[in-house]
Structure formats: C-alpha cells, structure tokens
Amino acid sequence: MNFKITKGGVTSPKGFKSSGVSTGLKKGNKKDLALVYSKESCNSAGVYTKNRVKGAPLIVTREHLNNSKAQAIIINSGNANTCTGDTGIKNAEEMCSCCADLLELKKEDVLVASTGVIGVQLNIDAIKKSIPDLVNSLSEDEHKNAANAIMTTDTVLKTVSLSFKIGDKTVTIGAMTKGSGMIHPDMATMLAFITTDINISTALLNKALKDSVKVSYNRISVDRDTSTNDMALILANGLAGNPVIDEENQDYQIFSQALNEINITLAKMMAKDGEGATKLVECKVINAPNEHDAEILSKSVICSNLVKTAMFGADANWGRVLDALGYAGVDFDINKLQLSMESSKGTIEVFKNGYPVDFSEDIAKQILSEDEILIIVNMNCGSCIVSSWGCDLTYDYIKINGDYRS
Amino acid sequence: MNFKITKGGVTSPKGFKSSGVSTGLKKGNKKDLALVYSKESCNSAGVYTKNRVKGAPLIVTREHLNNSKAQAIIINSGNANTCTGDTGIKNAEEMCSCCADLLELKKEDVLVASTGVIGVQLNIDAIKKSIPDLVNSLSEDEHKNAANAIMTTDTVLKTVSLSFKIGDKTVTIGAMTKGSGMIHPDMATMLAFITTDINISTALLNKALKDSVKVSYNRISVDRDTSTNDMALILANGLAGNPVIDEENQDYQIFSQALNEINITLAKMMAKDGEGATKLVECKVINAPNEHDAEILSKSVICSNLVKTAMFGADANWGRVLDALGYAGVDFDINKLQLSMESSKGTIEVFKNGYPVDFSEDIAKQILSEDEILIIVNMNCGSCIVSSWGCDLTYDYIKINGDYRS
User: Fold this and answer.
1) A350 with A341: CB under 8 angstroms?
2) Fewer CB within a 10 Å sphere, N or C end of chain A?
3) Which of residues 227-256 of B touch A (CB under 8 A)?
C-alpha cells in the first residue's frame, strides 16, 4: 500500500490538541514546554531507552502506563531531569499532577518526558508557573508550537501525518519527534510522540509500536551514543470509529505499514538533521542471508566515524566501508560482495568479486556531493534487505558538542 | 618491579638491526619501507586483527609464522595491500622472498606488514627496487629510520626500550609502533614490532604477547574503527644468554611485566597521538566487581564521541560519562557510583550517591585544559581496576579524515 505523508502533526488525528510555551529553561525565550492532549482516554504504549541510567521522567511514565491508558503527555526540553535522585522523580510526578489537575484527569493519565542537560535539578517552579498557560493554549489547529518546544539541537521541525481508510472510516496518524545528537540504535536522545484516532486494542498497539521502532528509530545513528531519556509513545483514542482491531488481521497490517511509514520518515529526518550533519547516509544491505546479519552490517557502516568523515569529504573511500563490514562481527564472503554508492546524480560500483572496480574519481565526487547518499552492500547470498540511516561527521558536530553543555 | 622506559627502539636488544628508506609510495620522498633484522633466528609470535577483512600481508605473515620462527620483518606504509585479491598475496610474498634472497634466509623467515590506503595494488616494482638499499643500510645504531618509515598520520615517533636483569644477564626489549586513526580495541590500524634478546620458549613468548596486548593495545581507542591490517609481532633471539624461560616462573613474570610496561607506554602514546587529538583521556574504573565489567565500562567512556568532544572543550560534562556507562551493557548500582575527573592541575568530584556534586566550573575548566585527563569511575562494589585510553575528538580529526584518502 502506498501512503502519502502530509505536513500535519500530533493534532491531525481527530480529538487531539497540543500547545507549546516558554518557561525560561531554554535561553532566549525559546519554547521549552509542550503538551499533547486527547479529549478521550487513549489506549497507549511506549518503548524506552535500554540505557542502564534512566531519566526520572522515563521511570514515572512507565509507571503511569502500567494500565496502558493515557490522555496527555507533558514534555520539557532544556533539562533531562536525569541523575537527579528522588528529587527528580518527585519533580516529574509534579509535572503530571499539575497538568492533571487543570485537565481534570488523574495524574496517572498524564505521561511525562524531558530532554536536555543531565544532572541538573529541574526548575520545577518555573514549569509549574507555566502549566496554566500551557493548558489554556491547547489547540486543535496548531501542532508546531509543541514540536518547537521539544527541540534541543535540532535545526528543523520534525512533524508528519498521514491518513488511510479502513472500510469507510478515515484513520489518521500524526507524530512529532526531536533528536539530533546522542542518536543511536536502541532509542537515543530522541523523543517520539505519535497520536492516532484508530480504534485498536492495547495489546496490538503495543506490538505495532515495538515492531515499528525496531525498523525505524532503532536503525538510525548520529554518534553511537544512546541516551538516558529516550522514548517513543503512542496514544490511540479510537475516534476514527473503525471496528476495533484486536487481531492481526488486514486492518492491523495496514495500520502497521502506515506506522512504519510515519516512523521511518521521522527517523530519516532525524538522521539527516544529525548534529552538524550536511547529508543523510543510508546503508542498504541487500541479498543478505538473514535480517540479523544484514542489520549488524548495515549499522556498522553508518556508525563508522571514518565512513562518516569520508562522506563529509565526498570521498568514495570504499575501503572504509569494507573495513566497517569486516569488524561488524558477522561472517561474509568477501569474494561475493559487491559495493556501490549512489545518489540522485548516479551510481558507481567500487568493489566486486574480491577486487576493486575502476571508477572515475570525478564522477564519484559529483555523486557523493549530494545531500542524500546510498551505500549499497550486495552480499549475493540470500534475499534479505535492511536499511540503516546515519549522517556525515563534520566540523560542526565538534563545534556543537565541544562547547555546548547539552 | 619498577621498570625504566628508555629512548631506544627495535635495535636496543642485542643482535638486532633496522633500516628505513623511501620508495615513493608516500608522497614527498618520505620514508615508507622499513626492515627489522636479527642476526640469529628468533622465537616469534604474533597477534592479529579480528576484522573479517584481512590484509594480504597479514595472511602471509601468519603463514610464515606457522613454525614460530622468524628473522626479519619488512614493513611498508602508504598502501595497506588489502582487498587486493590474489595479486595482493603474491605481492606480499614477493616482498618477503626478495628480502630473504639478499639476507640469505628462507622466505618463511621474513614476516611482512603493510599500512595505508585500502584497495589499491602495491607498486611492487618500486618496492623491489628499493630492497637492496634497505638491506644495505641495516644498522645497529639507528632505529629511527625504521620507526619513521612505518608512520602514516602519526605525528610523533613511537619507539621505546627498557632493560632488566635476570640473574647476572641483562635482558632488553625494544619496540616501535604506528597508529593514529582507525584505532580501536581488538587491534586497530596499528602495527607493533617488538624485539628482545631474551631466551624464552615460543609457547611462553606467545602467551606473554597475547596477555600483554589484551591490557595495552586492546584498551585504546581513537575512533572505534578497527583495521584490516593490524598486528603486533615479537622476535626474541635469545642473545641475552639467560637460562631459557620455559615455565611460568619468576623470570617469566618479570618479562611479562616488562612487556606490559613497553606495550602500555606505546599504547598511551598512540592514543595521545590519535588523529587530530589534543589530549590523552584515560578512564580508570576502580573497585569493580570483575575485570570484564570494568573493561566494558571503561572502554564505553573513552569511545563516546560526546565524552570525547566534551574533553576537547575542557567541559566537565559528566552526564555524558554516566550516559556512556549506562549504555555499555553492564549492570551497576548508580547509587554507589562515584565519578571524578583529574589532571596534574587537581581533582574534582562530580557525582556521588545518585546525586550531582557541586563543583566550580572554573576549576573544572583549569583541570580539563591539561593534555592528560583521568576520568575515575569508582563502582564501590569490588576490587578490580581497569584503565582504557583514548583521546579527544577535534576539528582536526574531521580535517584529516574528511579529505585524506588514508
């Protein structure tokens, strides 16, 4: 099925509102507090960082999601509320209860996420003072304020939506993410908030989210660092009115594909907006014996600092690609391997049958100077395909992280 | 035992000569071909890269070392002779046999190593033309020409020696290494050549080298990339005249310690001379429950791009250290953890008992502006200590790798 990504966001599905305000946590009066709200209770699911050090908001959200129900998410940027002990937990709880009071919900119906500097206590008073304004400015027509308020080093808003039909009912999914540095497979300093009006059981919502995160957010890397605060949350309020999806039927397959489309689109946007990045780099491993090996090889290539700097330099230094494949920890037959590099400007083959292939350095430079590069690794020993996405490593990455206490 | 590192090199032990000449593989008439030679046959051992893609010289050297005997090593820089198919193997063999003829050895007595660009056939004619000159200029008094000829992006010569007594016999170990980029645990783009006049069985020489590489070269990282060509080779010619070491007695322990001293010294030199690096960063995990966990945690910290850029910025951004510990994949109790950072200018404690510790940002800046930084992770739950060494990530790393076909 072909889905058409549109420019909406978390308020695109029926019954959702959002807002974003400034509390002063971020400098320069920038928006730093966001709220997503559904007028009906939602079946909800979450996927969390595997980092052993977990932020306070993550601990609180996981607890609040015990019953798989939620109706609002409050998110602040500028401070991760992590490594902040019991005080941090108390503050995360207070963000929820403060919102819940004004929205006439139980505090367990409110989820919480934070992103920003680690190890500094939240200015909870500033946040609490802003919550009435945050709640009052909730709107169906405006999703960009919220998307803006969750950004840290991001340079572009990351928000999309799409609609599709189940019978005669239109189902919509909307989403926003943030993430630029500290991005790595297994959920990095990224937050993803997905809203949908689909009618679906919590068990299948959970499964759909987990499966989708695996092939989207867990296949991108900016710098191999995974964060303490990452989560992807989905809220489904059922207002589309489709017959409830409670088995893995065709409706579920369509929803899963639509969710993948949303998440892969956002994942690629994150990779392309990686800290300091000038280009998106995709490594597609094709004709692999199995998904496991293909994923490991593909990730190894997009994670290599040497490949990333070569891409920055538009240098077809394919030896570094082979090197990254070699140390990935997966066996392969180098004599079957074919390597090529591709962009909208064309394709060059660089390695085949165990030997280098001659190519024009000038043409290679032209191809690699584009802002979306595809590295194709053809293993010629199976039929699996896996893509991972990363970006180049540039002077600006050093600048952003060498003197910004993020 | 306290060993005193001295400024010698591979010719410091009795009976060794070396030389280095220019063949034109490297631009600007730089030396790029080195030879190490012992007048007696040596018990020899090697440790090799775990990269699945292996350079031709590595394959040939491993074969020549089947009998654990060798008498010479020929090394070129400027070309890795890797991903070069059967032609590459033939060329590596030819480097050995050409040397062997002039030195009146069997070709199996000559080992070979290469470092430089991947995927380009060696200019074997240029090398063969230079071998007579290389052999003729062998000298006992000069080890720097050889050390120079194996450098790629290295900015300093890496060569050391030390002597110690076994009974009334003086035993000497000398060594040279190269390695700056593509450096990572499990043997990276690094070559290490160690000579010694100790009298030791091949079995124990093998064991001593393997154990020593584990705590030295395998505990450094510049950019998490491991190379196709890395090896550490040791030649022991027995000329010190000590009673042969053929059991793990006290003499063996002393030799092992001395070898560790040599290898750790060179490993730290490599990390400090990492591509673009301005400082050495050591992460020492103390009071750990076991060596395995301590090593994983320690390496995770020195490998994090975010920690590395923070060190470049002299920024005590300890949240990134905790983050790297968190995603290392090892369980620990964050409430027992203590973190501090240290240099010759002093120490600051930054995290304790689950909470941040207040510190002066000014003093932190002073401490972290030094060129050797120690990050101490006290786990408070055991007695193991493990150090790993890395460097900061700087603009120059991008410059070196963004436009240098290395």
Assistant:
1) yes
2) N
3) 227-228
